[in-house]
Amino acid sequence: MEKVRRNERLSAMLKTLSDTPNHIFTLSTFCEMFGSAKSTTSEDIDILRDVVTSFDLGEIATVTGAAGGVMYRATVRKSQARQYIEGLCKQLSGTDRVLPGGFLYYSDILSDPLITRKMGAILATEYFDDEPDFVLTMETKGIPVALTTAHALGVPLVIARHSSKVYEGSAVNINYVSGSSGNIQTMSLARRAISKGQRCLIVDDFLKGGGTAKGMIDLMREFNVEVIGMAFVMSTKTPVRKRISGEKSLMTLEIASHGDDQEIAKVTPAPWLLT
Description:
By secondary structure, the chain is α/β, with parallel strands linked by helices. The protein has 2 domains: 68 residues, Orthogonal Bundle (Arc Repressor Mutant, subunit A); 197 residues, 3-Layer(aba) Sandwich (Rossmann fold). It has 9 helices and 12 strands. The strands form 4 sheets. The chain has a 6-stranded mixed β-sheet with strand order 6-5-9-10-11-12, with helices on both faces. It has a two-stranded antiparallel sheet with strand order 1-2. Helix 1 crosses helix 3 and helix 6 packs across helix 7. It is globular and about 70 Å long. The mean pLDDT is 93.
């Protein structure tokens, strides 16, 4: 094998690590990939760690032990997260995006891969230490952010549906009360999607009354799965009391009157980002 230069090794290693975040690669993996000694590979990792840290590109962590190695985490500093979310808040505030019923149009934001990837990294940063086994969301608008969060955490995405699909086999179905409309709806999840005793992070796009989130918690209880956290792109300022507690959202929405029967949206970063 032709000798691989250090700059080539560093580029390939960073690409490999960042494409598979929160996944442990042994030193032997890179030694075999580049035909290099373990001491050389360790030096390469030290260089990468310094570069990633200096430019706030995330975190490269070394895991000790027999099954140890090195992994990349797409962490985001809180100051960076706050600055990014403040920019989104300015973009979403105003009168143009207000919808009837106290909602806000931001489907264009949720369909932008660059934005959702950043949101996913911010949310994942808050839950790395809780070590979820999978991310759960409800179809359909929450899927993009839930997927990027799951990717940053290095875990699968599980999607609950409004009705079971024949191609997913047997399913668990529950009824829940929608927090926004007060109507009774159905939530379904295939029995093979998750296993008893796993740990779940709930991620969704919008939190108003908390009915859907409460339904997902109840659904996980049917599977004997622990919910370690709940995260949302946006939550409304009212009602103050939700059907759930302990959640984290990126933004808070308040709809206020603006004269001539017009309503204005005031979107601000969530309080936890400001501390």
